[in-house]
Amino acid sequence: MIPAAFEYYRPKDMEGVLAVLTEHGDDARVLAGGHSLIPMMKLRMAEVPHLIDLQDVAGLGGISVSDGTVRLGAMVTQSDIIADAVLADAAPIMREASLQIADPQVRYMGTVGGNVANGDPGNDMPGLMQCLDATFTLIGPDGEREVAARDFYESAYMTAREDDEVLTAVSFKVPEGGYAYQKQKRKIGDYATAAAAVQIVKEGGTCARASIAMTNLSDTPVYSEAAGAALVGTSVTDSDIDAAVQAMLGDIDPAEDNRGPVEFKRHAAAVILRRAIARAWSRA
Amino acid sequence: MSKKMHIQLTVNGEAQEFLAEPRELLIHTLRERLNITGPHIGCETSHCGACTVTLNGKSVKSCTVFVAQADGAEITTIEGLGNPDKLHVLQEAFKEHHGLQCGFCTPGMITRASKLLEENPSPTEEEVRFGMAGNICRCTGYQNIVKSILAAAAEMSASKEAAE
Ligand SMILES: Cc1cc2nc3c(=O)[nH]c(=O)nc-3n(C[C@H](O)[C@H](O)[C@H](O)COP(=O)(O)OP(=O)(O)OC[C@H]3O[C@@H](n4cnc5c(N)ncnc54)[C@H](O)[C@@H]3O)c2cc1C
Ligand code: FES
Ligand code: FES
Questions:
Q1: pTM value surpassing 0.90
Q2: Is residue A116 situated within a structural domain?
Q3: What is the dihedral sign for C-alpha A93, A99, A101, A107?
Q4: In which band, very low, low, confident or very high, does the pLDDT at B37 lie, cut at 50, 70 and 90?
């Protein structure tokens, strides 16, 4: 379990990061918490001749909530998210989801930037970012640009980020209404068999808006617009939830793996979404 | 082989300086280079927590950290918590409450538990179980580990109150 040799860089600013990325192209990669990348390097499933550690790069930390917008620097860790009272108040779904990721040791290291940039369908933050309609800020040699989370994921490990770009922040509007992040996993430290992120707004007893996204049920996170639409205008009864679940099942495309056959995953997805909607509605 | 790097660490209060390849894993540095063999290698795949150390105030799995990332860091291992002549409260509690059988997971358990109690000095049973979820034990069934940690927490608050 020894990774292949690499050159190690620990620049203090983004200029330094971009210089190495520009010089070495896809032979270079950034390292955030390392808890997705290092296991892959140890298995020699990833080879990174030039590794750029982001830990000292200024300006990549911090959680802020202002003017109705939540912003998290790329190097904010899952344990930072769990500990932040202002964030827990503005977007409690972030804390609820983070508490269901991995275990305490991993959460001290794993960053939101690494989690969303990684492109692994098993990661929880990408689905959550679909639900929140987040925006990712990327910086590259040609400057900064913003990409909607809903446009970011192309296929497993393939995203809209270019090899010479770094993700610097994620941001989203302070979510409204009730929320739930519901996840089925085989054990602590396992990725989801199925997970659902739900935000739902109740006005006068009916559902005014709903946003629903699913994790690890396709080679990208799934934003199910149809599932949300199925709830709008209803009073979210059991049969309304059934309709939303049916709509979601039309949007996912799970593959058989060691977490089970396709039929089982579809079953788990339905159970998890049903629970997530009910919980989000009860909090709306 | 890549270029060796000059690394500086403070481990259990002692300064360490050496040359190492950046890819060296921190657990190998501790065990093989510095002869600090308290942290164990269980799974080597980031799952079991036997290799847990405290790195700049965070509990981390040292099999999933490159020594280069730790350059400049402060590290505490089980050796820094107590020794046979002066056991840490947690070590005493594990001994008293049968919190170990083979002992393989114990250094990681206690190192993690020390950080947990620092962050949450009077946890509930559920909080202990949740906070210790990154450490696997194949012997005890966890009951006595939880009991030991709760006992240590009570002991630590009692002696803190006595001091006040
Ligand atoms: C035992 C275990 C269980 C886990 N369980 C879960 C789980 O249930 N759910 C879950 O979501 N995750 C899980 N993880 C993964 C964990 O949350 C990772 O830490 C996270 O996915 C990646 O974050 P990182 O900061 O460690 O990124 P790294 O491992 O450092 O990087 C991951 C990838 O993203 C790229 N990258 C990192 N930061 C940036 C950036 N700012 N800009 C551009 N590219 C970047 C890297 O180059 C690399 O390709 C688990 C990990 C372990 C070890
Ligand atoms: S040896 Fe590091 S987590 Fe198992
Ligand atoms: S006491 Fe044997 S593994 Fe825990």
A1: yes
A2: yes
A3: positive
A4: very high
Which secondary-structure segment (H or E) carries B7?
Answer: strand B5-11
CATH number, span B5-80 = 3.10.20.30
Q: Is the CB of A34 under 6 A from ligand 1?
A: yes
Q: Torsion angle, CA of A107/B46/B133/B86, rounded to 10 degrees?
A: -100
Which residue, A146, A172, A198, sits at the end of a domain? A172
- Are residues A197 and A257 part of one domain? yes
**Residue A172 pLDDT > 80, yes or no?**
yes
Per-residue pLDDT at B153 exceeds 70: yes
CB contact under 8 A, B69 and A34: yes
Residue A244 amino acid letter: A
- Residue pair B59/B52 in contact by the 8 Å Cβ criterion: yes
Handedness of CA A109, A25, A56, A60 (dihedral sign): negative
Structural domain harbouring A49: 7-53
Shared domain check, A78 and A163: yes
Identity of the amino acid at A74 = A
- Please give the pLDDT value at position A240: 98
Contact predicate B12/B77, CB 8 Å: yes
Its ipTM equals 0.96
Domain count, chain A: 3
How far CA B100 is from CA of A188, B106, B114, B152, in Å, comes to 21, 7, 16, 14
Ligand 1 pocket, A213 CB below 6 A?
no
Name the 3-class secondary structure at B8: strand
Residue of A82, A106, A136 best suited for mutating to test ligand 1, as the one with most atoms within 8 Å of CB: A106
The H or E element containing residue B55 is: strand B52-55
When pLDDT is averaged across residues A238-250 and rounded to a whole number, the result is: 98
Residue A118: which residues within 8 A CB-CB, separation 6 or more? A36, A37, A157
Best of B138, B143, B149 for a ligand 3 pocket test (most atoms within 8 Å of beta carbon): B138
Overall fold of domain B89-159: DNA polymerase; domain 1 (1.10.150)
- Contacts of the segment A255-264: beta carbons below 8 A, 24+ positions apart: A255/A219, A259/A186, A259/A193, A260/A193, A264/A193
